[in-house]
Amino acid sequence: MRRTTTLTRILRRASGAGCLALAVLATPAWAAEITLLTTGAYKPVAAALVPGFERRTGHHVVIRNETAGAVAQAIRDGARADLVVLTPNGFDALIRDGRLSGAPPVPLARVGIGVAVRAGAPVPGIGTVAGFREALLAARAVAMVDPASGGSSGIYLAGLFERLGIGEAMKAKLVLVRGGLAAARLVTGEADMALQQTSELLAVEGARLVGPIPAEVQAFTIYAGMVPAGAEQAEAASALLRDLAGPDAAPVLAAKGMTPPGP
Predict the structure, then answer these.
(1) Which helix (H) or strand (E) holds 54?
(2) What was the pLDDT predicted at 121?
(3) Would you say the pTM of this structure is higher than 0.85?
(4) I want to staple 121 with a disulfide (CB 3.0 to 4.6 A). Which of 69, 117, 240, 258 is the partner?
């Protein structure tokens, strides 16, 4: 009996050690906290892809988002991030000014500007340039990103209004958003039309995406990711960047109103 009890104890200890070994193998050797600094248009995609990356790797990702101009300015002001998502032009300027260095940015997504109205509201006809122009003039108030905040869609639209000959008429009805989601102003009743990157319009519950602005006046923006030289969590951030640029991102991009960046 004593011999059986001793053998049982040995087996139990061995079994416990084996479970512990399996637990150690299942746990990442190290877990990092990755800071991702991204433009607002790409945030919905990052927010959808990051949880799977975190489950798979054990790393934790902190997402910070701003307009493209504010992201660039934050880096100029000394902000440090492990992974930055920005437009190629934004990266070019920061690299040229010596504010960023490292491996070249990796293209991640492409997105155009869209039109949204409050859910249940009449849908304007925006399929032609003339129809789009008429819809803008008929709107009581139009929400968009303030060009002064550095948002790429706001900067482009301000110039587009001038080219369409409605710059002066639009000034009185614009609801300018300094970063954030223009379509949120539809839900509050501050505006009855919102213009912004499609991915950001889709992110607002209670808003309805009408569609993209006409192809003749459309402006597509490419977003890319870069791990800055000297990033504290460069290895983990590089793994995240590979995930964001990988094939599993395509369906998420489609669901969020974006497309792969193409060749």
Answers:
(1) helix 43-57
(2) 97
(3) no
(4) 117
